[in-house]
UniProtKB/TrEMBL annotation:
Membrane topology: Multi-pass membrane protein
GO molecular function (one): G protein-coupled receptor activity
SUPFAM superfamilies, A to Z: Family A G protein-coupled receptor-like (SSF81321)
Official protein name in the record: Olfactory receptor
Length: 309
């Protein structure tokens, strides 16, 4: 049996054998990356500079933007570079690091979105106690728990995955190092460590889903009782974008990691991976900036200040 230490690198999937199509895919990914990068960086900068955007909601949104910025930077730059350089290689260490950071940021985002649902619950269902419950110290602790949770699962999944022996092939049928593709390369059919890790992940993911459902039940009930249409519209405008991102993120990432293993990856597997790694980082800045009055006002103020200076 081959030992995992003998593996020096892997080959990531190429989208086409035709050079022109490779360049086209690289340009498409580059546009997606730049849009996500600029959008999340803009929100992070606006919230950091504007003293009027210091409420708990914007604190969590700032963390979310930073996670999304890092999340998409973990996968796309390597894929773009490989497409333009006629190379598909990634070193063993590079694959370990990429895998770790994908899990780290993915889990951190899930936990943070769960914390944000609780923030919306307190703001809408207990508005008189909001400033008492969601104090800065509490928000900091919630954010730290999200980051530590991501780090814990990153270490757990990386340690259990890369101690497996890889001997079937070096080619990963994905544009980044992810768990289902790596398991197909293992020459061991027994993955006790992975199975235990997945069980822990599923359990916590289910708890996050239950927490979100418990939060949004009272939220919608309370919003529907608001007598004015403007009041209901304002409340829904802060909840629906968050809920949309959550549903896309949970549905696609859950499908990617929980579906039964197959011998080879399909186009659907690739599309699912693209959705949970690219869509949330692009969607978050759009829905939180274009639909948010305070963000738009802050952006206008920043533009005016730069113009006047």
């Amino acid at each position: 049996m081959a030992n995992f230490s003998m593996v020096t690198g892997f080959l990531l999937m190429g989208f086409s054998d035709i050079w022109e199509l490779q360049v086209l895919y690289a340009m498409l990914f580059l546009v997606i990356y730049l849009v996500a990068l600029m959008g999340n960086l803009l929100i992070f900068t606006l919230i950091s500079l504007d003293e009027h955007l210091q409420s708990p909601m914007y604190f969590f949104l700032k963390n979310l933007s930073f996670i999304d910025l890092c999340f998409i930077s973990t996968t796309l730059p390597k894929s773009i570079t490989n497409s333009l350089s006629h190379s598909r290689s990634i070193s063993f260490t590079g694959c370990v690091l990429q895998f770790f950071f994908v899990i780290f940021f993915a889990v951190s985002e899930l936990f943070l979105l769960t914390m944000m649902s609780y923030d919306r619950y307190v703001a809408i269902c207990q508005p008189l106690h909001y400033e008492v419950i969601m104090i800065r110290d509490t928000c900091m602790k919630m954010a730290i728990v999200s980051w530590l949770g991501g780090g814990f699962f990153g270490v757990l999944y990386s340690s259990t995955t890369f101690t497996l022996p890889f001997c079937r092939s070096k080619e990963i049928h994905q544009f980044f190092c992810d768990l289902p593709s790596l398991l197909r390369l293992s020459c061991s059919d027994i993955h006790i460590g992975i199975d235990v890790s997945l069980a822990i992940g599923i359990a916590l993911g289910f708890l996050c889903f239950i927490s979100i459902a418990v939060s949004y039940g009272p939220i919608f009930s309370t919003v529907l009782k608001i007598p004015t249409i403007d009041g209901r519209s304002k409340a829904f405008s802060t909840c629906f974008p968050h809920l949309i991102v959550l549903m896309i993120y949970i549905a696609t990432s859950g499908t990617a990691y929980l579906k039964p293993p197959q011998e080879s990856e399909s186009v659907l597997d690739l599309l699912i991976s693209i959705f949970y790694t690219m869509v949330p980082p692009i969607l978050n800045p759009i829905i939180y900036s274009l639909r948010n009055k305070d963000i738009k006002i802050s952006l206008r103020k920043l533009i005016v200040q730069k113009y006047l200076s």
